[in-house]
User: Fold these one by one.
Assistant:
Number 1:
Amino acid sequence: MDKRIPVTLLTGFLGSGKTTLLNKLLSDAKMHDSAVIINELGETGLDHILAMQVDSEHIADNTVLLNSGCICCSLKNELADTMRDLFFKRALQAIPQFNRLVIETTGMADPGPILGNLMNEPVIESTFRLDAVVVTIDSVYGLTQLESNPEALKQAAVADVLLLTKTDIASPETTQALQEKLAEINPGATQHLIQHGEINPDSIIDVGLFDPTGKTATPQRWLRTPGKASTPKGTLPQKPHQDGITSFTVTMPKPLNWRDLKPVILKLCQTHGAKLLRLKGIIHAEDQPAPLAIHAVHFTPYPPTLLEGWDEEEAMSRIVIIGKDIDEAEIRKALMQI
Ligand SMILES: Nc1nc2c(ncn2[C@@H]2O[C@H](COP(=O)(O)OP(=O)(O)OP(=O)(O)O)[C@@H](O)[C@H]2O)c(=O)[nH]1
């Protein structure tokens, strides 16, 4: 079983309600065993967030603020250093024990490099695992922001959970239009409508590859194959949305060996990395003792996770790809040729 510390990456465009959400989340007893890394641009300080944590000194002691840049670019190394530092302090019991890490990014963050950072550095990869990318979207301004800001679009595209905030002040029609747009951009993500950051933490945490009891893998939930419109079995390419973001599933041929597929995934990342926002898959390979969960972001494929003790009735290998201006036909061809 995967004993690594689960990480929730909380991102969302400027002013979309990340801090409001985090404040509410952290005041819930279920979250009191969390450590938090907050990345803010500027000198806001921690007071605004910690003001509400009166009953959780635990979180106050386990919260780190990075505020001299953005963790997707200028503070890349600081994020890795901070995560390592938190882990070693935890091991030495120099800080309260924590069983979860929440990272709040700035509103302009590109989640791609952050995900890369999380999974590409040996110490971090062996001690932390990504649970889910949670993205807040402003229900009033979300549609406009998705149209005019590539960052907002990328955030929405790689999300596992989309939280449509401020539904108290958006008209039902606007919220509905945003929901439809988000379902086009990222049909695999779960959507929740929220107000003032109120949401049951269970909808956000432990929604990844492993279930909260830590006993079994739940990859179907993690993979969340896009809906029927995006799951063609043939090789006909999907028409990309106007914004160029596409999400599609490739059902892999059988039988399949990981030793044959691995180089194809590597090559795919090398060739299409710039446009590949996220790749997730479940692989039933004949040369593996159990199914594999695979994951890649841009140019970087990550070590696969062996899903020991888990299997499915119909052993169907599938790979979900989310990309911007990505050549779907090319990718399908490459994958189907193995
Ligand atoms: N009416 C209403 N206001 C909200 C809601 N969620 C957040 N807000 C307000 O929206 C503003 C921005 O919220 P924040 O939580 O600071 O947003 P953020 O994403 O952390 O902002 P940045 O850190 O600047 O990117 C604040 O004034 C919040 O009080 C909501 O559900 N309804």
Number 2:
Amino acid sequence: MTNKTQNTNTRSILIIDDDINICQLMERFLQKKGFQTAAYSSGIEAQKALIHARYDLAMIDFRLPDGDGLELLRNLRKIQEDLKCIIMTGFSDVKLAVQSIKQGANDYVSKPIYPDEILASINSALTSAKNVETESPLHKNYIKGRSQDMERLMKHVDKVGPTDLSVLIEGETGSGKEYLARSIHDASNRRNQPFVAVDCGALTKELASSELFGHEKGAFTGAVRNHTGCFERANGGTIFLDEIGNLDYQVQVKLLRVIQERVFTKVGGQQSIEIDVRIIAATNEDLLQESHEGSFREDLYHRINEFSFHIPPLRERPDDIMHYAHFFLEQANKDVGSNVESFSEEVIRVFMAYPWPGNLRELRNVIRRATLLTEGKEIPKDVLPFEMTDSSAMASTLSDNIPGPDLKSATEHAEKIAIQNALKACDGNKSKAAELLKIDRKTLYNKLKEYDIGH
Ligand SMILES: Nc1ncnc2c1ncn2[C@@H]1O[C@H](COP(=O)(O)OP(=O)(O)OP(=O)(O)O)[C@@H](O)[C@H]1O
């Protein structure tokens, strides 16, 4: 298809989609916005292109004729480790989207493609979003949660921040682990020193040591110059190791040494380098379990876990849902140039009942899309993704979290969550909750009894 024209000042975007119409549409739009673009219809062509030229970001369709988008993402990152990436998924592929983020994509957008939505996602991936490595500055695009859980968590941040304790943050994908890590850094005496975030999920096994600890020129094929690793760059400050569970066993051994002895050696180097870095790690897996199974070193687990935070999933803190929703609506209005003011009652109800497997990231994306599609002042239900409003699709989204695989238990589970959330949103007032749920009080009482809620 098309080839990139060289101009070193402009950001360049690689588009990979076997639908030629989508490629053309995106290229035209992105070029008008000042990006250089190149489009390819298969993964193999894109890999060849990346060998010949550097790109800032790749937009990858999940379903490609020669493999899936995540496999391609891994291959592209082997060629260019700092490539940012947005995965394009089908409208109802929330699970794939969540999986993409877990495997190192910076963001996802759902089809059908809306140019303004893509632009907002590209801009945030290029500027502030997660990459193999990002360095502070402060987070103006963030707000504090207002649920009791999050308030308690932020109090702990104030207490633990100023100490030098290693911190482990556990939470589902998109729940705000990086934001919390930055908040801990900001609450510490290291706040004016570097904050270096490393996405260990995006590091290939071969290059992880060199990325983290640096290498000497000639240490391995391709090491054409000396390289300063993330630890050295974070000296005096904080290093944030996101998805630490993905680190190779050998790298875990090296990491343990840095923590215990405060020294490390570069790949191919002889000299021990002293270092003063505070470690914050994050995971969305059960690291303790993994350490029992032997894939994560138990001694390392205890070293990084001098203090731990668990961020509850968004569905378990209903007070935060609309709080963030309004914040994201404001952001979306700015991003896509709209002027939407609020959410319809129905949308609020759907938001409160939906399980949000992608947490805040998913909420932000859903609102961005809905804002773009809304014509009036209020977001209506019909601009929400199908799987959020259709009960059987929702049951399948929920199926990871429910006890049984059958539709009946899935539906019951969804109903129970919706009722619990409505009650919390109405401060336990059952009449109001029934109104919000659009059922009568008697039905609500029956269901409370059936599901054993509130006793
Ligand atoms: N406190 C917050 N205020 C506003 N937006 C937030 C906040 N926390 C997270 N977000 C939104 O959610 C997205 C994901 O957050 P973050 O990268 O911190 O999550 P994470 O738990 O580290 O995710 P992952 O495990 O997938 O890396 C952010 O890009 C941002 O858009």
